[in-house]
Amino acid sequence: MTEYHRARRLALQGLCCLDVRGEGATEAVLAFLRDSRESLETVAEAEGMLRSVLARRGEADALLSGQSRHWEVGRMALVDRNILRLAVCELLAGQTPKKVVISEALRLANEFGSAESSRFVNGVLDAAAHRILRSDSRDAGDKEKEELRRKGNGNNCNDKSDGRDAGDKEKEELRRKDDGNDCNDSNSTG
After folding, report:
1. DSSP string, 75-136
2. Which of 16, 78, 4 is nearest to 53 (CA)?
3. Residue from 108, 99, 97, 2 nearest 45 by CA
4. Domain locations in the chain as residue ranges
5. Sign of CA pseudo-dihedral 80, 81, 82, 84
6. Fold of 3-149
7. Angle subtended at Cα 146 by Cα 143 and Cα 150, rounded to the nearest 5 degrees
């Protein structure tokens, strides 16, 4: 079992405890994590995962509600909803490949969930992952378009805000002078 899987298992246990006891029990749950027999690195990773889910739980729940037909998040099985929250927060963070997140979620569902958990988790998580990835690609496209608008069309030699750093601009200016094509000095003979 890998360190990350052990951390996910530990984070899931903590999330389930918090789901039952409420967020007022956060310190007790963190103490539970620290008292586990896991390595310090695994405990630290599990704490990070747990804190990430707590910080983004509303966002994760809203996303899950939109993906699970006829199932409000509060009506999902305790283990299933916390596996889904953990996985969705990992997907939102964008640090772990989608296939790894889904595989790990299914592994947790098989270990801790009911006979139907892995099918349910797979269906909801796959839909959520597609939605997150579509949203990320739209956001990236919007950011790229904004960056291009900000840079302009790049054809104006006098435009100093073309997105290049000073070293690139200096190299290009030297190249133009060497070629005799300095648009800032029309009398340049090269």
Report:
1. GS-HHHHHHHHHHHHHHHHT-S-HHHHHHHHHHHHHHHS-TTHHHHHHHHHHHHHHHHHHHH
2. 16
3. 2
4. 3-149
5. positive
6. N-utilizing Substance Protein B Homolog; Chain A (1.10.940)
7. 135
Packing angle, helices 117-151 and 40-67, rounded to 10: 90
Q: pLDDT (tens digit, 9 = 90+) per residue, 87-123? A: 999 999 999 999 999 999 999 999 999 999 999 999 9
CB atoms within 10 A of CB 117: 21
Q: What tokens appear for 131 in the block?
A: 């939605």
Q: How many helices (H) and strands (E) does the chain have?
A: 7, 0
Q: Which residue has the tokens 């899931």?
A: 12
Q: What is the pTM of this model?
A: 0.71
